[in-house]
Design a protein that fits this description.
The protein has 230 residues and is of the alpha/beta class. It is built from 6 helices and 7 strands; from the N terminus they run E-H-E-H-E-H-E-H-E-H-E-H-E. The chain has a 7-stranded parallel β-sheet with strand order 3-2-1-4-5-6-7, with helices on both faces. Helix 1 packs across helix 6, helix 3 packs parallel to helix 4 and helix 4 packs parallel to helix 5.
């Protein structure tokens, strides 16, 4: 990754699509974007939690199909091109790989890898010149851990995709930012699709992580490794 700066993106009056807005980090991002003056279209699977996001408009949608990703992008870009896409969609599973079901492995890669790829493919033609796509691969993409092997692999695959996709998007003058925050108190670990979370130290505050990500967007950073959050 090149960590040099690109032209900055002004968040005030930006047209923003936040996917995974029903999660802890997604909600924090929506709140900060609205405070900055952005128009925020929020998408999440959990309708109840989605209502807690301070969005301009919200849509309960399961993005695990190419058609749903295309629908989400069309909905967010109906009035004007999208300036910023933030993909905060994700699921987690815990336990040794010998105990992890095939269904759980498939769900990890479908949600954590394929949804971002499908969303990126749908969004790029609808992005404004100078726009940004933020993908959250997370610190696990830098160093995988036992008991999280398949989850870490799904995130590492996303990071690899981002590396090449960033070069393709650059031809359309769109920046791709790979963000890899350390463990954050989003509530995701309390909702695994399989297994139970090991005892972990207290994670970062979602508000602080959201601030760091949006600072990077505003200043045109191209890469956010885990070390940049501490």
């Amino acid at each position: 990754y090149c960590r040099c700066m690109a032209p900055s993106l002004e968040l005030s009056d930006a047209n923003v699509l936040v996917c995974g807005a029903s999660g802890g980090l997604g909600r924090a991002l929506c709140q900060r974007l609205r405070s900055a003056g952005a128009t925020v279209s929020a998408i999440g699977r959990n309708a109840d939690r989605l209502q807690q996001a301070d969005a301009s408009r919200s849509l309960s949608l399961d993005l695990r199909s190419p058609e749903a990703c295309a629908d989400a992008v069309a909905w967010a870009s109906q009035d004007r091109p999208i300036d910023l896409v933030i993909n905060a969609v994700g699921v987690v599973a815990f336990g040794p790989v010998t105990e992890l079901s095939t269904d759980a492995m498939e769900e990890l890669f479908l949600t954590n890898t394929f949804v971002p790829i499908m969303l990126s493919r749908a969004a790029l033609p609808r992005m404004a010149e100078g726009g940004t796509i933020v993908q959250l691969s997370g610190t696990i993409a830098e160093q995988n851990l036992p008991g999280m092997a398949a989850y870490g692999a799904s995130k590492a695959a996303l990071r690899s995709f981002n590396e090449a996709f960033a070069r393709e998007a650059r031809r359309r003058k769109v920046l791709v930012l790979d963000a890899r925050p350390p463990h954050t108190e989003t509530g995701l670990a309390d909702r695994p699709i399989e297994g139970s979370a090991p005892k972990m130290p207290t994670g970062l505050d979602p508000d602080a992580v959201a601030d760091r990500i949006l600072d990077a967007v505003s200043s045109g950073e191209r890469d956010l490794p885990a070390a940049s959050f501490t």
